[in-house]
Amino acid sequence: MHLHKLMYQFKVLVEYETFTAASEYLCISQPTLTQNIKRLEQALDTPLLVRNGKVLTKTVFGESLYKHACLLDKSYSQALDELEHIKNHQRKTLMIECGYGWSHGQLMILLQDYIKQHPDIKIVINNSNSVDSQSKLIKGQCDIALGAIPSSDSRDKAIHYLPIYKTRFSLFCSSEHPFAQLTQVSNQQLEHSDWIVLKHSGEGKEHKDPLLFPFKPNSVRFEVHSVTNAISLLSVSQCVMALPEPLHDEAIRKGLVELKTVFQCPVYDTGIMYTDDALLLAHKKEMIESIMKYQNKLGVNIWYPPHDPTG
């Protein structure tokens, strides 16, 4: 840092051409500036300037150092500007990654009070699966992730995990699908079905979700990135689709039928994930704390139970 300071003073001296003008710009005395230039030459063990009366001439070494001093000062300024931009951006924005079950369910409830308390905060909500959300947390691309909590042996040490409630996926088809009239659908029948897959933005094509029925990739008839479009498409096709429990009521209202299957999607914990970085800024920390406080209302014991399609 000391050498950088001396190089900056050397740059200013070259540009202002005299010790008097340069010292006035730097708000230091002329003797101090003269001494600092000598210190720089001693540190580099090479002469940088030649004085001919009041005229200063750069040596070959001085010419080279001046070019690099300009680049260094520019890089230094750009670094500070970029950091300031990032800080301002983070102060005003809350980035949330979550699955469709959250964005079409409890997240809107959680945001009600927060939005009123923080009218100046821009909230960005992106849909992604739990694995991608955790990756974005580690990379600093989001502040909070809401989704499936991985098992303890699959958790990242840099991420805090807080289960909120238990849930699972259910399988649906249209009322015109042959499966809709069956008392039970076998695994073999599911394996030979066409599927609609509700994808998240940026999700890999071969992503296999252990929480869903293990259908083969070539069974996928449609890949859709919108809940509304997926439900509408399912209602007019001969396909099967898995939906998270928070979307159950919406699916039923749209005339879809929950399948009665031998296969049962596993129950899993879903909740909030975040890193220590999210605790550094007040508006992010407050969102995390509001979710924790609301946990008693949502309840880790409150889960979306398996619906009885026969009822």
UniProtKB/TrEMBL annotation:
Pfam families per record: HTH_1 (PF00126), LysR_substrate (PF03466)
Protein known as: LysR family transcriptional regulator
GO terms under cellular component: cytosol
Protein family membership: Belongs to the LysR transcriptional regulatory family.
MF terms (GO), sorted A to Z: DNA binding; DNA-binding transcription factor activity
Residues in HTH lysR-type domain copies: 1-57
Sorted UniProt keywords: DNA-binding, Transcription, Transcription regulation
Organism of origin: Vibrio navarrensis
PANTHER family in UniProt: HTH-TYPE TRANSCRIPTIONAL REGULATOR YBHD, NITROGEN ASSIMILATION TRANSCRIPTIONAL ACTIVATOR-RELATED
Keyword Transcription: yes
Entry annotated with the keyword rRNA-binding: no
InterPro entries to which the protein is assigned, alphabetical: HTH-type_LysR_regulators, LysR_HTH_N, LysR_subst-bd, WH-like_DNA-bd_sf, WH_DNA-bd_sf
Organism lineage: Bacteria, Pseudomonadati, Pseudomonadota, Gammaproteobacteria, Vibrionales
